[in-house]
Design brief:
Largest sheet: 5 strands, parallel
CATH class of one domain: Alpha Beta
Helix content: 40-55%
Structural class: alpha/beta
Shape: globular
Number of strands: 8
Strand content: 15-25%
């Protein structure tokens, strides 16, 4: 099964993606992860992407599509895959449709109030990158990472003003994809307003949508 996950920052998409990929035994594909790996390995595409990153620019669609196409040719994608954070635009979705058939698109939704609460409570370890939340996943010791005892910080983009800007960018760039996939009959909305403790119910709804 070939799946695309949609959802604004803070909706919990990463958590859902990890769970769903294990259930269906398909790889979770993130373009960000692919570019970081390509840059680390100094591949041709990685070096090209780095020239844009170094200037603070977005990687052009044609470069992104090229690395996606290469990734889908790998053996672990034979039985399906799940895109997390791709496509982001109609142009990317059109290009993707020329490469592979998408079976289902899960659109995780939550109110802006809940998203701001989730993201503003997030804390990240400056040493190992472990993620905590002051309410949902609190560290054993306030401000200290459970994994490596590193210092926990609040990232600048997890502060309320930055979150609102990120949501505005999402609405302008990515929300049109909702209508795009809805018109194709591929979209299923999944209510992600529920609290962290009910993540199993959210996953159950996602499975139901995928198995229909």
């Amino acid at each position: 099964m070939n799946i695309v996950l949609l959802g604004s920052p803070g909706v919990g998409k990463g958590t859902y993606a990890e769970r769903i990929s294990k259930i269906y035994n398909i790889p979770q594909i993130s373009t960000g992860d692919m570019f970081r790996e390509a840059i680390k390995n100094k591949t041709e595409i990685g070096l090209l992407a780095k020239t844009y990153y170094d200037k603070g620019n977005l990687v052009p669609d044609d470069v992104t599509i090229k690395i996606v196409e290469q990734r889908l040719k790998q053996d672990d994608c034979k039985n399906g895959f799940m895109f997390d954070g791709f496509p982001r635009t109609i142009a990317q979705a059109d290009a993707l449709s020329n490469i592979v058939v998408i079976d289902k698109v899960l659109n995780f939704t939550a109110s802006e109030e809940i998203i701001i609460s989730r993201l503003s409570g997030r804390r990240v370890c400056i040493e190992c990158g472990a993620i905590f939340h002051i309410k949902n996943i609190p560290p054993k010791t306030e401000g200290v990472c459970d994994e490596c005892n590193g210092k926990l910080i609040q990232r600048d983009d997890d502060k309320p003003d930055s979150i609102k800007k990120r949501l505005d960018v999402y609405k302008k760039q990515t929300e049109p994809l909702i209508e795009y996939y809805k018109e194709k009959g591929l979209l299923a909305d999944i209510d992600a307003n529920r609290p962290f403790e009910q993540v199993d119910e959210i996953i159950a709804d996602a499975r139901k949508a995928l198995d229909e």
